[in-house]
Write a structure and sequence with these properties.
alpha/beta, 27% strand, seven-stranded mixed beta sheet, 19 strands
């Protein structure tokens, strides 16, 4: 089957769904290929207290359901499937979703990113119950707790320093005997009285009934195992943007994020726009993703309006 649309949105989450709300209200009748894991990382989040407008907080999946219902209300059509392939080499652009081929005059990409996890047996069960991948999102819940931060790069050290605002103690757990973080970040962490280090250590298990109570460490040199009592574990070993579909089609940075023009959501292909965590390696918040979704919608709407008035070649 072949269908043509003015605009197709690939991906959902706060960015894609905000783009859908804006473009649907602009009468562009967007089609959203929302993915089988529709809703993005907030679907794995328990309580969200930092999204404006929800004084008492809201559960992540409930927030995403509200986004989705709003997009549907204005006429967005959602396809709950993953895009199998895209072709941005010619216009109209092509997006294949199983036996359906969509063509589009403009495309907004909002496929997001996923936090790298440790792969522990109990990790997914305790995610949102003491295990987190975002200090900015969840640090507030850990006031006066003992916390572990896993990682040795700038983001891990930044998260550890941020968490000292709330925690009683923060233990940075790193596989090697020196950090990969920049010198200035290392100096700040080493000078912080609330931060301890467990060098040459890796987490091999996490324990807790209903919520995290301890983690098990293995010494990477001696092989000895020990338990550390913590009620919070922040995994800060990086993110993977969901861009495998776009390799060779769009310019990506060395870590795989889509490159967008400064102060814009425009990608290296005119008429293709990107928003949210798939192109944002810095902020990674629901509210900033939603903001960039709004930007992509406006950029796409202006692009479509401008190309409508381009005179045909004689």
């Amino acid at each position: 089957m072949l269908e043509h649309h003015e605009l197709v949105i690939v991906g959902s989450g706060p960015a894609g769904l905000t783009a859908a709300v804006y473009t649907a209200r602009a009468n562009l009748e967007p089609v959203m290929v929302e993915g089988l894991a529709a809703g993005g990382q907030l679907m794995l989040t328990t309580e969200v207290e930092n999204y404006p407008g929800f004084i008492e907080g809201i559960m992540g999946p409930d927030l995403m359901m509200r986004f989705r219902e709003q997009a549907l209300r204005f006429g967005t059509r959602c396809i709950t499937a993953d895009a199998d392939s895209v072709d941005f080499s010619a216009r109209p652009f092509r997006i294949r979703v199983s036996d359906l081929e969509l063509t589009a005059d403009a495309v907004i990409i909002s496929t997001g990113a996923t936090a790298r996890m440790l792969g522990l047996a109990n990790e997914s069960r305790l995610l949102g119950h003491g295990v987190s991948t975002c200090a900015t999102c969840d640090g507030f819940f850990f006031r006066d707790h003992d916390i572990a931060v896993i990682g040795g790069g700038d983001s891990a050290i930044e998260e550890a320093i941020f968490l000292t605002k709330f925690a009683r103690k923060v233990t940075i757990i790193h596989r090697r005997d020196e950090l990969r973080a920049s010198k200035i970040m290392q100096d700040r962490a080493l000078a912080n009285a609330k931060i301890d280090f467990r060098w040459n250590s890796e987490v091999i298990d996490a324990f807790g009934e209903g919520k995290l109570s301890s983690i098990r460490l293995r010494d990477t040199v001696a092989g000895e195992e020990s338990d550390l009592a913590v009620t919070g574990m922040f995994v800060a070993i990086g993110h993977d943007p969901a861009t495998a579909l776009f390799a060779g089609q769009l310019d990506l940075d060395p870590d795989g994020y889509i490159v967008t023009a400064p102060d814009s959501t425009r990608t290296s292909v005119e008429g293709v726009f990107a928003c949210g965590d798939v192109q944002d390696r810095t902020y990674r918040q629901a509210v900033t993703a939603a903001g960039s979704g709004c930007m992509a919608a406006i950029d796409a709407e202006r692009y479509l309006e401008a190309t409508k008035h381009v005179p045909a070649h004689s």
